[in-house]
Amino acid sequence: MTTFDLEELKDISILCVEDEDGIRDSIVNTLGYYFNNVYEASNGNEGYEMYEYYKPKIVLSDIQMKDCDGIEFVKKIRQKDENTIIIMLTAYSNEEYLLELINLNINHFILKPLNTKKLDEIFKKILSKNDECIVLFENLILDLKKRELVYKNNEVIPLRKREKDFLKLLYDNKDGILSYEKIECEIWIDKEMTSYALKSLVKEIRNKLPINIIKNVPQEGYTLVKN
Question: Which GO molecular function entries does the Swiss-Prot or TrEMBL record give (predicted)?
Answer without folding.
Answer: DNA binding
